[in-house]
Amino acid sequence: MKKINIALLGLGNVGRGVWTILKSNREEVMKRSGYEVNVSKILVRDIGKERGINVPKELLTTDFNDILKDDSIKIIIEVMGGMEPAREYMIKCMEKRKHIVTANKMLLATEGDELFKKADDMGLMFQYEASVAGGIPIIQGINESLTANKVEEMYGIINGTTNYILTKMELEGLNFEEALKGAQDMGYAEVDPTSDIEGYDAQYKLAILSSLAFGTKVDVNSVYREGITSVKSIDIKYAKEFGKVIKLLAIVKDRNGKVEMRVHPTMIPKNHPLANVYDSFNSILIKGNAVGDLMFYGRGAGELPTGSAVVSDMITILKNDVNSENYNHVVKNNLWDKKFRDIRGVESKYYIRIRVLDMPGVLGEVTSIFGEYDISLGAVIQKISKKSEKEVDLVLVTHTCREAQIINTIDDIYELKSVKKIKSIMRIEDFE
Amino acid sequence: MKKINIALLGLGNVGRGVWTILKSNREEVMKRSGYEVNVSKILVRDIGKERGINVPKELLTTDFNDILKDDSIKIIIEVMGGMEPAREYMIKCMEKRKHIVTANKMLLATEGDELFKKADDMGLMFQYEASVAGGIPIIQGINESLTANKVEEMYGIINGTTNYILTKMELEGLNFEEALKGAQDMGYAEVDPTSDIEGYDAQYKLAILSSLAFGTKVDVNSVYREGITSVKSIDIKYAKEFGKVIKLLAIVKDRNGKVEMRVHPTMIPKNHPLANVYDSFNSILIKGNAVGDLMFYGRGAGELPTGSAVVSDMITILKNDVNSENYNHVVKNNLWDKKFRDIRGVESKYYIRIRVLDMPGVLGEVTSIFGEYDISLGAVIQKISKKSEKEVDLVLVTHTCREAQIINTIDDIYELKSVKKIKSIMRIEDFE
């Protein structure tokens, strides 16, 4: 049996998962890869830290150079996360001809270009399945299984924390704060939950997926982003009346070379498969012009699911003959030039909830402004507010229009004396 | 731009899809693969046949040697199907150092061993994503993305025709014959539908998936098989009363190295994702010991979805440098020795519908036999038959027991004078 030395950069959640899998599935890894895999060093910040797993102390080092300068180490598993020094370490390791497996979505979404290029220049393999949607093989799916397709649309639930929160709000009637607290208690949300609940995590992931699907560089800032902090229980209830549920959806559409990318709370039909993705599960639906609808569903986070992606990536490197220098596996992201569409150019249906004074003529005033901007309404519901009988909720659902039309309409509606507040504006996706 | 010549063996449904994709997605294929792909010959039986697509006549040949002896042809796309001469042609082409892409499930399920070995010996790539579940990348998923896992269970809806029929029966109340007729009218079922409705198609596919998931040779005959011809509308109705639906499920479970493989109509909970896979869609749920639950969903058949898998496979070959002779991509199916469990050793819950005479004591007689064989009952319903008031339907649902216990029980129940007929025995899967 051939032997191979690898090193881990980092021993947090994902690192622990990788270690556990390499131990518990030792025979699988050996037979599938053809190699006996030996973790020879692990870079950590604090050697003394209690980690809840049984890793021999002598493997741990706080000195990156111990790993960099060890020529027997052929594969680097980067699971430390963050921008620096992860980026610098990977670049240096590649310069020493070490293949890379990484789970680092932030780095890939922002500096992927430099990393891909270095791997390509050096003829190395650079694997990153774990960077998006944990154990779901969506990267492999796009990079290998869908290459015959023009990807037309992607819709993803790619943040488990927010999906868990929205699930609790939908099924158990919790409000956002209660559901967030529950997610924190379960360990699904961080103490500072900003990255998840404000949609940054999903934004990074969507930038990576779009870049791969369209073979083009994607600036993470061209992905429009809204989090779920403004989702109210009352909107979930109204959604239900329209046969819809609310999900934090990552959406990409290529409309004749103009690509829109956005992450925001979205009302989707209850009978759509994505509507039934609950708890911390992830799911991604891809529409290819040949394959049609293709959906992946699974665990988007967690030690073992993410570790599964990392270790499988490592096996892929080993199967491709780790000692060869002749690879063509690095994805090129300079195949196409795409134009990215600003959120104002997006077309969608909209759900709008407005608090108005309960007086004659208000409905007419409001709806006539929609008319002025050429927006057709699909439904209008007037709800009596519990808070005050002098104010009512006006819920409107539009037909498809441009976001710019909605922005202008809302501006004008705000000017009306009878309008107290625009309580909610949410995009609706019918997958038509 | 590098150029590559390929040839198609066959120009039926899948062949047409491949041709169409190579034309319509020419730019995608070129950029993703780095090659300009030229179809230089297509083997057909009848050059004059009208095919509904615009293929230049001069590409067509009825002589396999035109392709075999053309050394400029580096990749063979085998989409003729069937056992011979497809097997012979692929072997001969590999001896001439041509890489293979095939969609041939029957051949892979029965002679995959010989084909894999030949590819391995010759250092060639042998791709077969299209052989199972059309456009769904389940082969790649198992072979590349889940290699870090012990696969513990797989559950698949992998035959679109039967799923279409069962969908019509469930949602529109059609009986089997009506639904089959509809499937034939829609082109989903063949004039001779045996391979689909008797479960042979799913049996082949499950044999392939099991072989890959367990890295072992699988005799297709060790896959237990029942079709859907015995599924009655009344059983679908009763299933509904228990909160279940009926699907033709392909099931694999590895229980400590003892593997059971079976294809049969199965009652599954209505709220399970697989229960909501409708029409001709396919879906496969895999449980890995690291990744947890992972599900794939998409089009399991059709020109373009299957063509998508074939063309993506071809691109994978091109990306791996078609001229290299250094591959390690062929899956080994001799990694593990597995014991296969006979259907009598399977453990399951069962749904049993018995027609009995409506007389006192019958229920006691029947249920006491279950007791004799140590089978606990979860539910018993006595239904008045419409046909005759002297006979009633007795519907029983067991707790988990061995199939052997059920077989013995049924044998004894048949002996009872009060029992007219065992109308239905169906396995229940709760995914617990």
Automatic annotation (TrEMBL), chains A, B:
Pfam families: ACT, Homoserine_dh, NAD_binding_3. The keyword Oxidoreductase applies. Pathway: Amino-acid biosynthesis; L-threonine biosynthesis; L-threonine from L-aspartate: step 3/5; Amino-acid biosynthesis; L-methionine biosynthesis via de novo pathway; L-homoserine from L-aspartate: step 3/3. The keyword Oxidoreductase applies. It catalyses: L-homoserine + NADP(+) = L-aspartate 4-semialdehyde + NADPH + H(+). Residues 351-427 form the ACT domain. InterPro entries: ACT-like_dom_sf, ACT_dom, Asp/hSer_DH_NAD-bd, HDH, HDH_cat, HDH_CS, NAD(P)-bd_dom_sf. Its cofactor is a metal cation. It comes from the Bacteria. Its EC number is 1.1.1.3. Keywords: Amino-acid biosynthesis, Methionine biosynthesis, NADP, Oxidoreductase, Threonine biosynthesis. Belongs to the homoserine dehydrogenase family. This is Homoserine dehydrogenase.
